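Students often ask why inverse folding is considered easier than folding. One informal answer: many sequences map to the same fold, so there is more than one right answer. In these notes we will look at a single instance of the problem. The structure comes first.
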């Protein structure tokens, strides 16, 4: 009699403990995601102060190269970082990445030349490349189907919060008592200090320990398996095309709003980040909840929610490009909000969709490859946008191209064929 009543209690207790651990992982990584994107957005928001203080940057094209170099280095090393996270410890990769990029962030506040800034952004690309694939794979390891999109969505909220706070850095740059160098110094010190407790608090999932019994997939074997998967190729393309718009919006929008609407650097930075990032938070929470519920009915639930988000991006891009012709900053902000809602739906489901087409042992590697292609193209978009701005190409035409890319993306994601790859793992845990 006693054994009959005790077993369910023990099972419930074990499940509750595992659930608390899973959400603790998300809570610990949200600040890391914030710091990961805070640095990137600060540079964009403080562009005019940095260029004034480092005059040999000189041209918009050179500024575009600074933005692009970070992305190209980041993109190239993302698959390597992902493979290391799959092969060894996700915990070690995450903590080391945070420590190094935070040290480089501090160093950025002390550069005096264009070449030095190029070097620090390149090293920043090296260190940050290892975080996102490892972090998202770790969250996916702890969160199975019922909570995966919501967990990823909460982590992405940290990214959006980093962009928002980074947008306010324009005010710090304009302050005679603070300045742009203070912002980088402060951000760097905070990250270095947080990396130490993070190393001890984050844990790898039991799956990683159990996987030692199975032979590890070689880098060439992992690459062959992923690139031989047509759904993975479609996901890479789907992940990449919106990035052309996403990176330009993040990196160039403060400068665009300042130039097109004749507003101050601080106001431009906030207007370019706050509203659409808040919308992205709402989109990520809503999209994650909706995708997890939709998955109860069909394996394509996350795909459908992501496609809805991408459909919102189409009119948003047309609107952002047209807004300067109205002379109304509010019009630009309204379409940026629409873009943010769509981006949240899209962003919270990329790793969960990957989990439906790639084995757990290949997820960080797979996301690294996605980053390689996506961010490489994002770097080209940043550089190319700087060149087009120097040549006074109309914004409506540029953002019209982004809108067309979003239309293609909707078609691509609907062609993906998902599978329930976590079913065996769920069965073992239930047993």
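Output (designed amino acids):
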């Amino acid at each position: 009699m006693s054994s009959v009543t005790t077993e369910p209690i023990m099972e419930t207790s074990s499940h509750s403990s595992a659930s608390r651990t899973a959400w603790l992982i998300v809570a610990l990584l949200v600040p890391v995601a914030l710091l990961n994107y805070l640095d990137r957005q600060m540079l964009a928001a403080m562009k005019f102060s940095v260029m004034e203080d480092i005059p040999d940057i000189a041209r918009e094209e050179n500024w575009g190269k600074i933005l692009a170099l970070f992305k190209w280095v980041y993109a190239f090393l993302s698959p390597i970082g992902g493979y290391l996270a799959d092969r060894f410890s996700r915990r070690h990769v995450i903590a080391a990445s945070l420590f190094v990029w935070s040290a480089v962030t501090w160093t950025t506040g002390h550069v005096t030349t264009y070449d030095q800034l190029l070097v620090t952004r390149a090293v920043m690309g090296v260190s940050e490349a290892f975080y996102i694939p490892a972090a998202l794979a770790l969250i996916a390891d702890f969160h199975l189907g019922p909570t995966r999109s919501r967990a990823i969505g909460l982590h992405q909220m940290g990214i959006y919060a980093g962009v928002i706070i980074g947008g306010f850095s324009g005010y710090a740059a304009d302050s005679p008592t603070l300045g742009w160098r203070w912002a980088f110094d402060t951000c760097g010190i905070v990250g270095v200090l947080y990396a130490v407790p993070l190393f001890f608090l984050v844990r790898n999932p039991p799956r990683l320990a159990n996987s030692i019994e199975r032979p590890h997939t070689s880098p060439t074997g992992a690459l062959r398996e992923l690139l031989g998967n047509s759904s993975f190729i479609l996901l890479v393309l789907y992940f990449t095309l919106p990035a052309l718009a996403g990176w330009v919006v993040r990196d160039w929008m403060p400068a665009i709003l300042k130039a097109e609407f004749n507003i101050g650097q601080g106001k431009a930075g906030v207007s370019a980040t706050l509203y659409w990032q808040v919308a992205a938070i709402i989109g990520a929470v809503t999209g994650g909840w909706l995708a997890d519920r939709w998955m109860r009915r069909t394996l394509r639930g996350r795909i459908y929610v992501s496609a809805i988000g991408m459909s919102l991006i189409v009119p948003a891009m047309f609107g952002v490009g047209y807004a300067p012709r109205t002379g109304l900053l509010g019009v630009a902000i309204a379409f940026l909000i629409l873009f943010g809602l769509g981006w949240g739906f899209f962003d919270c489901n990329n790793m969960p969709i990957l989990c439906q087409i790639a084995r757990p042992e290949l997820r960080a590697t797979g996301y690294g490859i996605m980053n390689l292609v996506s961010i490489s193209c994002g770097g080209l978009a940043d550089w190319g946008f700087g060149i087009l701005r120097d040549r006074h190409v109309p914004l409506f035409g540029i953002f019209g191209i982004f809108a067309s890319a979003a239309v293609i993306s909707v078609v691509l994601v609907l062609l993906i064929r998902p599978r329930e790859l976590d079913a065996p793992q769920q069965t073992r845990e239930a047993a």
